[in-house]
Design a protein that fits this description.
This protein has one domain. It has three helices and five strands. It is of the alpha+beta class. It is 30% helix and 40% strand. The protein is elongated.
Length: 138
Protein backbone atom coordinates (compact mmCIF):
# COMPACT_ATOMS: atom_id res chain seq x y z
CA UNK A 1 0.00 0.00 0.00
CA UNK A 2 2.80 2.41 0.90
CA UNK A 3 4.46 1.70 -2.46
CA UNK A 4 1.24 2.58 -4.31
CA UNK A 5 0.93 5.86 -2.42
CA UNK A 6 4.58 6.70 -3.13
CA UNK A 7 4.10 5.87 -6.84
CA UNK A 8 0.95 8.03 -7.04
CA UNK A 9 2.75 10.89 -5.31
CA UNK A 10 5.70 10.59 -7.71
CA UNK A 11 3.35 10.53 -10.72
CA UNK A 12 1.54 13.68 -9.55
CA UNK A 13 4.87 15.41 -8.89
CA UNK A 14 6.14 14.50 -12.38
CA UNK A 15 2.95 15.77 -14.02
CA UNK A 16 3.13 19.07 -12.12
CA UNK A 17 6.80 19.48 -13.07
CA UNK A 18 5.95 18.67 -16.71
CA UNK A 19 3.21 21.31 -16.72
CA UNK A 20 5.59 23.94 -15.31
CA UNK A 21 8.33 22.94 -17.77
CA UNK A 22 5.96 23.21 -20.73
CA UNK A 23 4.61 26.65 -19.79
CA UNK A 24 6.13 29.67 -21.50
CA UNK A 25 8.18 32.13 -19.49
CA UNK A 26 6.87 35.61 -18.68
CA UNK A 27 9.48 37.00 -21.09
CA UNK A 28 8.12 34.82 -23.93
CA UNK A 29 4.56 35.87 -23.11
CA UNK A 30 5.49 39.59 -23.05
CA UNK A 31 7.38 39.23 -26.34
CA UNK A 32 4.34 37.65 -28.00
CA UNK A 33 2.13 40.41 -26.56
CA UNK A 34 4.42 43.21 -27.79
CA UNK A 35 4.81 41.72 -31.28
CA UNK A 36 1.09 41.11 -31.87
CA UNK A 37 -0.19 43.40 -34.66
CA UNK A 38 -3.47 44.23 -32.92
CA UNK A 39 -1.69 45.09 -29.67
CA UNK A 40 0.86 47.21 -31.58
CA UNK A 41 -2.00 49.08 -33.22
CA UNK A 42 -3.60 49.81 -29.83
CA UNK A 43 -0.26 51.03 -28.45
CA UNK A 44 0.22 53.34 -31.46
CA UNK A 45 -3.27 54.81 -30.92
CA UNK A 46 -2.49 55.62 -27.30
CA UNK A 47 0.94 57.04 -28.17
CA UNK A 48 -0.66 59.26 -30.83
CA UNK A 49 -3.01 60.49 -28.10
CA UNK A 50 -0.03 61.61 -26.02
CA UNK A 51 0.37 58.55 -23.81
CA UNK A 52 3.40 56.32 -23.84
CA UNK A 53 5.88 58.07 -21.57
CA UNK A 54 5.73 55.19 -19.11
CA UNK A 55 4.76 51.53 -19.68
CA UNK A 56 4.25 48.89 -16.99
CA UNK A 57 3.34 45.22 -17.51
CA UNK A 58 1.77 42.48 -15.41
CA UNK A 59 1.47 38.84 -16.45
CA UNK A 60 -1.17 36.77 -14.65
CA UNK A 61 -1.28 32.99 -15.03
CA UNK A 62 -4.91 32.10 -15.76
CA UNK A 63 -4.31 28.36 -15.62
CA UNK A 64 -3.88 25.41 -17.90
CA UNK A 65 -3.94 21.65 -18.05
CA UNK A 66 -1.98 18.68 -19.35
CA UNK A 67 -3.46 15.87 -21.39
CA UNK A 68 -2.66 13.49 -24.23
CA UNK A 69 -1.67 16.29 -26.63
CA UNK A 70 0.51 18.10 -24.11
CA UNK A 71 0.21 21.02 -21.75
CA UNK A 72 -2.02 24.02 -22.52
CA UNK A 73 -1.74 27.34 -20.70
CA UNK A 74 -3.38 30.78 -20.68
CA UNK A 75 -2.03 34.06 -19.32
CA UNK A 76 -3.45 37.56 -19.11
CA UNK A 77 -1.12 40.46 -19.93
CA UNK A 78 -2.04 43.91 -18.64
CA UNK A 79 -0.08 46.86 -19.99
CA UNK A 80 -0.58 50.22 -18.33
CA UNK A 81 0.54 53.14 -20.48
CA UNK A 82 0.78 56.60 -18.90
CA UNK A 83 1.84 60.11 -19.80
CA UNK A 84 3.86 62.14 -17.32
CA UNK A 85 2.15 65.48 -17.80
CA UNK A 86 0.89 67.71 -15.00
CA UNK A 87 -2.37 65.72 -15.03
CA UNK A 88 -1.25 62.16 -15.78
CA UNK A 89 -3.59 59.86 -17.69
CA UNK A 90 -3.34 56.09 -17.69
CA UNK A 91 -4.89 53.60 -20.07
CA UNK A 92 -4.62 49.82 -20.15
CA UNK A 93 -4.31 47.25 -22.89
CA UNK A 94 -5.25 43.69 -21.96
CA UNK A 95 -4.63 40.51 -23.93
CA UNK A 96 -4.99 36.79 -23.34
CA UNK A 97 -1.96 34.78 -24.44
CA UNK A 98 -2.53 31.07 -25.16
CA UNK A 99 0.12 28.41 -25.51
CA UNK A 100 0.75 24.71 -25.94
CA UNK A 101 3.86 22.85 -24.83
CA UNK A 102 5.79 26.01 -24.01
CA UNK A 103 5.06 27.71 -27.35
CA UNK A 104 2.73 30.66 -27.84
CA UNK A 105 -0.25 29.75 -30.03
CA UNK A 106 -2.20 33.01 -29.98
CA UNK A 107 -2.73 36.48 -28.59
CA UNK A 108 -6.30 37.81 -28.23
CA UNK A 109 -7.08 41.40 -27.32
CA UNK A 110 -9.41 41.67 -24.30
CA UNK A 111 -11.85 44.56 -24.10
CA UNK A 112 -13.71 45.74 -21.03
CA UNK A 113 -17.08 47.31 -21.66
CA UNK A 114 -20.52 47.77 -20.19
CA UNK A 115 -23.81 47.02 -21.84
CA UNK A 116 -27.28 47.30 -20.35
CA UNK A 117 -25.79 48.28 -17.04
CA UNK A 118 -23.76 45.07 -16.66
CA UNK A 119 -20.02 44.71 -16.99
CA UNK A 120 -18.72 42.38 -19.65
CA UNK A 121 -15.26 41.03 -20.35
CA UNK A 122 -14.81 40.40 -24.06
CA UNK A 123 -12.13 38.30 -25.69
CA UNK A 124 -12.65 39.13 -29.34
CA UNK A 125 -16.36 38.58 -28.77
CA UNK A 126 -19.30 40.89 -28.36
CA UNK A 127 -21.11 41.36 -25.07
CA UNK A 128 -24.36 39.46 -25.18
CA UNK A 129 -27.77 40.91 -24.73
CA UNK A 130 -29.21 39.92 -21.36
CA UNK A 131 -29.70 36.12 -21.04
CA UNK A 132 -28.06 35.37 -24.41
CA UNK A 133 -24.79 33.46 -24.89
CA UNK A 134 -21.61 35.00 -26.29
CA UNK A 135 -21.05 34.57 -30.01
CA UNK A 136 -17.70 35.02 -31.79
CA UNK A 137 -17.30 38.10 -33.95
CA UNK A 138 -16.89 37.44 -37.62
Amino acid sequence: MAQMIALASLTISLLLNLQVALAATSEDILEAFNHDKVVQSEIRKLEADGRGDQKEYDVVDLGGSCGVVGCYFQSLVVMRITNVWVNPQTSSILARVDGLNGKITGVSLVELSTRTGKSCLQVQKRCPAPNKPLEPTR
